[in-house]
From TrEMBL:
Region named Disordered: 1-33
Superkingdom to which the source organism belongs: Bacteria
Keywords: Aspartyl protease, Cell membrane, Hydrolase, Membrane, Protease, Transmembrane, Transmembrane helix
A GO MF term: aspartic-type endopeptidase activity
Protein name (record): Signal peptidase II
Organism: Roseisolibacter agri
Coiled-coil residue windows: none
Gene Ontology annotations for the cellular component aspect, listed alphabetically: membrane
Family: Belongs to the peptidase A8 family.
Length: 237
């Protein structure tokens, strides 16, 4: 006769997925070796993410576009030419009788009409026509140099506009008056006087400003060498 075991309602049903409970001694040994983590809120330090701030590097100014150059160049050219023509008209109206007005020191107002070339050079009977052609060619060359020199020096368009505006004023006087270009600003010296007009002053000021651009160009050519490509030498500055 088979032995019948008594039914225990509190016994746990063991399945293959349920691991067997280790003996009491083994369980106590495992509990002793397992570390219990201790968290202290007061001692906890939270590391904030650090942001690395890169130093700001000043970017090189971008070269001006052709439209921006035109907006800077042609209005100044027109302003210089208008100022020259207005002052010539005032001088002709005030000094039409060939009288001289002293301004103090070596300066005076004295009206003369210049029919010769620059520096008083006489080129014969066609000097007036040759002056017109030469002045127009020089103005065209100055306009063509604006985008080239602007890549080297951002102040070059101002210098070129002063020179081209003065040339345009004298060219307009040559075309409108067969008597020549009115000069009325006299600077006296021991051997006589230099007589000029406002256009000449603007052209001289533009030439002085252009000397800075020429100096920058010479320095760039020395830095890059004479065999360096033009695009590398005429870099934006």
């Amino acid at each position: 006769m088979a032995t019948v075991l008594p039914f225990d309602p509190h016994a746990r049903r063991r399945t293959p997925a349920t691991p067997a409970t280790p003996p009491r001694g083994e369980r106590e040994r495992q509990e002793r070796v397992v570390p219990i983590p201790v968290s202290r809120t007061a001692d906890r330090v939270t590391a904030l993410p650090t942001t690395r701030i890169a130093p700001a590097v000043a970017a090189a100014p971008a070269p001006l576009s052709e439209r921006a150059l035109a907006k800077r160049f042609f209005p100044l050219l027109a302003l210089v030419a208008i100022a020259d023509l207005v002052t010539k008209a005032i001088a002709v109206a005030l000094l039409g009788g060939q009288e001289s007005i002293a301004l103090g020191g070596p300066l005076s107002l004295h009206l003369v009409y210049n029919t010769a070339s620059a520096g008083g050079v006489w080129l014969g009977a066609h000097t007036r026509e040759l002056n017109m052609v030469a002045t127009g060619v020089v103005i065209g060359m100055l306009v063509m140099l604006v985008p080239v020199l602007a890549r080297l020096d951002r102040h070059a368009p101002t210098a070129l506009a002063l020179m081209a505006g003065g040339g345009a004023g004298n060219l307009a006087s040559l075309v409108s008056s067969p008597r020549g270009v009115p000069d009325f600003l006299a600077l006296h010296h021991q051997d006589g006087a230099w007589i000029m007009n406002v256009a000449d002053l603007f052209m001289f000021a533009g030439l002085l400003l252009l000397m800075r651009t020429i100096g920058v160009l010479v320095l760039a050519m020395r830095t890059h060498g004479p065999r360096q490509r033009t695009d590398a030498v005429l870099a934006p500055r």
